[in-house]
Amino acid sequence: MTDTDQDENSWKRNVWIVWIAVFMTGIAFSEVLPFMPLYIDTLGNFSKTELTFYSGAAFAINFLVTAFVSPIWGKVADTKGRKLMMMRAALGLSVSLFLMGFIQNVWELLALRAIQGALGGFVSNANALIATQTPKESVGRALGVIVTGFTGGQLIGPLFGGAMATVVSYRTLFHLTGVIFLVVFIFIWLFVTEHKVDPVVAQKKQANVTWKTLPKKPLLVSLFITTMLIQTVNMSISPIVSLFVREVLHNHGSVTFFAGIVASMPGLATVIFAPVFGRLGDKIGTKYLIQAGFVMAVLAFVPTAFVTSIVFLILLRFAVGISDSTMLPSIQTLLTRNSPEGMVSRVFSYNQSFQAVGSVMGPMLGAAVANLFDYRAIFLVSAAIIALNGLLFFFNVNRKYDLN
Fold first, then answer.
1. How does pLDDT run across 211-232, given as a tens digit for each residue?
2. What are the residue boundaries of the Major facilitator superfamily (MFS) profile domain, all occurrences included (predicted)?
């Protein structure tokens, strides 16, 4: 076997090992979130308003802390290595989630959720590791595969968590989630290979490129904003998905069942199509996929505002997932190809920060629009946001940079 064959086998093995790791991570993250309000309700005698507030705070504080802390871990990863940062994140998440099973009040939960956000960064470092260890001509395909792992885990997580919650207590479920992250830690430690980072060379590369001197900064910022807005519109329906499904069904049929299907459609489409579009982007150019994604998202969101059939609602949410499949791997590919070698992890961590902000903004936007107008207006506002973002990307970025 030649060195070239060994290198090819190494990066391909990494892709599938990291896929398994992010798949397990997706399960672990998503299996406890649907039951967080129910768990909080066991921690005290709360009114409906108090329970809603604490549930929202427990959700948001994790993402807010992640938004601030992620770039710090990204800088460390560029110096010390991405594998080490994946292990650090997995172990930190294991401990923080395991401890959530022992808390006695809501303030302890909020503190641990904040710590969870501060110790995170697993997925962004997984993406950075794959991006830096994969040949440039195959980066889009590899990142498309990784997207399917995390998204697939997020789809299965609530089902797994729901099944386990019928057998064990909420506290035990947190303990099991901590164990999953411990398994991920061991898995990454034993099986992922990363070309060793020379700390001296890495520090020199970091010294040569700072945020102020970063080339193509407007392009990178535009990609960060695109990630944030995609996450915002994707999360905007979260607070009202079951209520909107009930409205479409006119109280005929199982609201819970169909709400679950509607909520899972974007993720299911991403799992199916992300690897396909990742390979396509490597062949025809990622910029064309992003532009197609903008158009497809608008064409999916606008008719959703007028839908009267649950079947069409399911199909249109699936179409939203297809648009995500064109944009998310393409954005990460462009970040890889336009980041200096000494800043890849930092750039990915900045992108995660913007994504975390979108995770907070989305539910707030959805709730605000629903209160001011109605549920259907959320989809029109989402379409307008995506259309504006697409125009800005085309005129301010695509026409100024030679994207490939």
1. 666 777 888 888 899 899 988 9
2. 14-401
